[in-house]
Design goal:
By secondary structure, the protein is α+β, with helices and mostly antiparallel strands. It has 4 helices and 7 strands. Strand 1 and strand 2 form a beta hairpin. It starts with a helix and ends with a strand. The N terminus is likely disordered.
Amino acid sequence: MKKTTLAFVLLVFAALWSGGLLAGEPFGTAEQARAMLDAAAAALKADQGKALAAFSDAHNKDFRDRDLFVYCFNTGDGKFTAYELPGLIGADIRQFKLYNEPMGQRSYDVVHDAPEGAVVSIDYQMPKPGETTPSPKRALETRVGDQACGVSYFK
């Protein structure tokens, strides 16, 4: 009986390791980004004020996981209402540029005209943490009322 139990424990450990759960994957996946975005949309529908505060809370692990985090902006004035860096709350997303590309305007445009609840995406380049060379990244965004929220991940 002990050999069977040990074999089962080793099998579970190997499955978790190969799936990246114990391997310490440094970046979130597309699936994890989508799940976080879906959870954020549900939280916004339940209580917008509480949700926006949770998204900006550095200690809230439901909406921050490695490089994944929820950001939101108002679809009217484009101002951030939630972001991992508190200093950007109130800044206009449409003013953000990466490598001279109007990334913020693109982000605003793609979700502003999308039907509420639809998930849209934009691709852009950004260096991974600790690197200087740009890497492909994708932002998934959705609209809930007057809020547009997104989660981005490295491709």
